[in-house]
Amino acid sequence: MNLSNLPGHPHLAYRGNELFLEDVALSALAKQHGTPLYVYSKGAMLAALQSYQRGFSGRNTQICYAVKANSSLSVIQVFAQAGCGFDIVSGGEIERVLAAGGQADRIIFSGVGKTRSEMRRALDVGIGCFNVESEAELEVLNEVASAMGVRAPVSIRVNPNVDPKTHPYISTGLKSSKFGIPHEQVLPTYQRAAALNGLRVIGIDCHIGSQITQEAPYLEAVERMIDLVQAIEAVGIPIQHIDFGGGLGINYNGETPPDAEQLWKKLLAGLDARGFGQRRLMIEPGRSLVGNAGVCLSEVLYLKPGAQKNFCIIDAAMNDLPRPAMYQAYHQIVPLQSRSATPVTWDVVGPVCESGDWIGHDRALAVQAGDLLAVLSAGAFCMSMASNYNARGRASEVLVTGAQAHLIRQRETIADQMRQEKLL
Ligand SMILES: *Cc1c(COP(=O)(O)O)cnc(C)c1O
């Protein structure tokens, strides 16, 4: 086993045959807290944030962590303490941000289906901006704000029709997508918004997709956004901030996404060239801040060699780690304590009664029942998508910093799961 750091995972490394996250041996955490167990590195989260901060240094920017990537309270708290704002997509996420110490005026509210009660709550607490996704939503937000006697700060999410060249389920900036306002309707929509007394137009935003591994789609989106800002301002509607969304990818399986600092230096050069480099800029990164900061630890329950396939059955499943089943996603799987035995090819699967319940296909691993494994790149869109399918309780979570480990979520019990239910 390679004793050096794992590529793309600078806070994860073997020391001897033991896998460490920062200065904590992961097998010790698995033994103490049981499995499946999510473990996050605070250092890795802050390092990812700092790459963006360096890219933006000297500029008027707000980095808004996209909460849906990982909405655990302590994860939100780490970013709140580091000065981040938050991109949220539901009333539940507003409450999580506030409970974790986030500032309301640094919250931006995205999503195509905001309800009236979510709008009222967001206005009550004084969020920074509504990223409005349709004309119908604009009218409803105007009504809600007017009834409360306030003006809702709005940005309109535009669909720049840029192909992010990623998985179709996470492409959001194409014409066929449910997100945003089509390019050609942007101007009339801004004119309508500017005419409504319950609204205050402050910005423009886009978000073209997720797990983007090339810089070209961003360069294209920046140009199209500036074209739009110029057109909107030409009709007398000032745009205070431009929000470019999130979407930057991570290394799951050898991908080489641009580094955040380098990407933003390049995009800022483009903005400078067009005279927009000093405008207030916002971004909404999610995955790239937390994805490679987290691992999911799991125990090998059974080995089931077969004529066609060998199955390695582990105690984490699609309810804990939904990305393989949902997007055919790849997550690297490595042992917590490496063995010198010859690896065998296994399909690593969970206990859930679905053929879609796999974690990794055709993985070369030297394992025995009782061994502990780490599923890598599990910080984003894993715990936040976890469910109780098969009446499985959601995993517990630990956050490490240096040699310290903090339990940040207890394992969900059967009583927790049944609490809201009633027998006839
Ligand atoms: C999901 C989402 C993000 C974050 O995307 P990542 O790919 O995780 O960076 C940002 N903005 C909006 C509107 C989103 O829906």
Walk me through the structure.
The protein is α/β, with parallel strands linked by helices and 424 residues long. It has 2 domains: 3-41 and 291-418, Lyase, Ornithine Decarboxylase, Chain A, domain 1 (Beta Barrel), CATH 2.40.37.10; 110-285, TIM Barrel, CATH 3.20.20. 29% of the residues lie in helices and 26% in strands. It is built from 12 helices and 22 strands. The protein has helices spanning 26-33, 42-55, 73-81, 91-99, 116-125, 135-148, 186-195, 216-234, 260-273, 287-290, 323-327, 414-418; strands at 5-6, 9-15, 18-21, 24-25, 37-41, 61-66, 85-88, 107-109, 129-132, 152-159, 181-182, 199-205, 241-243, 280-283, 294-304, 311-314, 333-335, 344-349, 358-365, 372-375, 396-401, 404-409. Strands 5, 15, 16, 17, 18, 19, 20, 21 and 22 form a 9-stranded mixed β-sheet that branches. An 8-stranded parallel β-barrel has the order 6-7-8-9-10-12-13-14, surrounded by 4 helices. Helix 2 (42-55) runs parallel beside helix 9 (260-273) and helix 8 runs parallel beside helix 9. The radius of gyration is 23 Å and the shape is globular. The termini are far apart. Bound molecules: pyridoxal-5'-phosphate. Residues 66, 68-69, 87, 110, 207, 210, 245-248, 284-288 line the site of pyridoxal-5'-phosphate (PLP). Pyridoxal-5'-phosphate binds next to helix 10.
